[in-house]
Amino acid sequence: MNNKILLIVLVSLLAFFGYSKFFSGKNDSSFNPEIIKINPDQVTKVVIQTKADNFEKAVLEKTGDGWTISKNGKTYTAAQSAVNNFLTNLRSVNTSYIAAKNADKWATYELEPDKATHITVYNGGNVLADFYIGKFSVNQQAQQITSFFRLADKDDIYAVTGMAGMTLGQGSNSYRDKQLLKMEINDIETLNYEGDEVYQVSKSGSEWLLNEMETLDSTKVKNFLMNLISMSGESFVDGFDENLNSDKLLKKLTINGSNMLQPITVRCWKDDSLKKPFIIQSSQYPGSYFESDSTRLFKRIFKSVAEW
């Protein structure tokens, strides 16, 4: 009798276990944790539509040894590090469980076509992956972020733990090269400032002179130059027309040296209608205009010699 009772209990437990697993979706026979399988070396183009870009198409495209990012008919150089990060995150999309199996749940997870991030990955004309990224949920106690994915040709909604969803859902500007200046410190021999202040800092032997007369502290000059030689912006000012804003040109810095192929010019405009009123651009990266307040790029480049 006891054996019969134990057998009944065992069968009941097995039935309950199978029932719960079937409806949880975690061990369903159709569940595959690797919903995106891509060899990064095969990727030649990625079409991205994100909320940050108002769902306008942006295209990452491989060109020779580098990448470009295009949007609204304009093409910019992409930062290789940002592209590498994107491709790495593609490989880390491993799902934890199936959150839902029906299209009527798309709205719950913000996975409707007009509300979700849409990413299509290509090798030439062949589609390697086509998927959507919807809402995020944060478990503060577990310090865990979960994002929800679906494949373009399936109804299933997959939960993905980690930062992959947030990283892949960034806007197109996150892929643009934000470099403003890049040079060698030993190549710099003169810095000419123009605008509301006019002065020159030049190298003479082992010394640095202000307006060819006053000897400057070489350590302070070196520290300033070390800060200057590799500099990046943060936020772009797209659509800025320097010809229409020529009256707003405030400052200009020209950097020169005998080993430089050509002088590097950094210009700064001021537009008081902007929250961050300073707009800065260099001749090294002429298509990139960056915004700045009085404490960031602007101060790092144009602060007075007395503050070096």
Task: Bin the strand percentage.
Answer: 35-45%
Judged by helices, strands and strand pairing, the structural class is alpha+beta
Q: How does the major sheet shape up? A: 9 strands, antiparallel
Give the H and E element order.
Answer: HEEEEHEEEEEHEEEEEHEEEEEH
Uncertain runs are 5-27
Q: How helix-rich are the residues, as a percent range?
A: 10-25%
Straight-line N-to-C gap? 92 Å
Number of strands: 19
User: Strands of the biggest beta sheet: in what spatial order?
Assistant: 4-3-2-1-6-7-8-9-5
Give me the Rg, rounded.
Answer: 28 Å
In round numbers, the mean pLDDT is 89
Tell me the count of domains.
2
- Name the overall outline: elongated
Number of helices: 5
Characterize the structure shown.
It is a single chain. The chain is α+β, with helices and mostly antiparallel strands and 308 residues long. The chain folds into two domains: 25-175, no CATH class; 179-307, no CATH class. It is built from five helices and 19 strands. The protein has helices spanning 2-24, 80-91, 164-168, 218-228, 297-302, and strands at 45-49, 58-63, 66-71, 74-77, 95-100, 117-123, 126-139, 144-151, 157-161, 179-182, 190-195, 199-204, 207-210, 214-215, 230-232, 249-256, 264-270, 278-282, 290-292.
Key structural traits:
308 residues, alpha+beta, 5 helices, 19% helix
Provide a short characterization of the protein structure.
By secondary structure, the protein is of the alpha+beta class. The protein has helices spanning 2-24, 80-91, 164-168, 218-228, 297-302, and strands at residues 45-49, 58-63, 66-71, 74-77, 95-100, 117-123, 126-139, 144-151, 157-161, 179-182, 190-195, 199-204, 207-210, 214-215, 230-232, 249-256, 264-270, 278-282, 290-292.
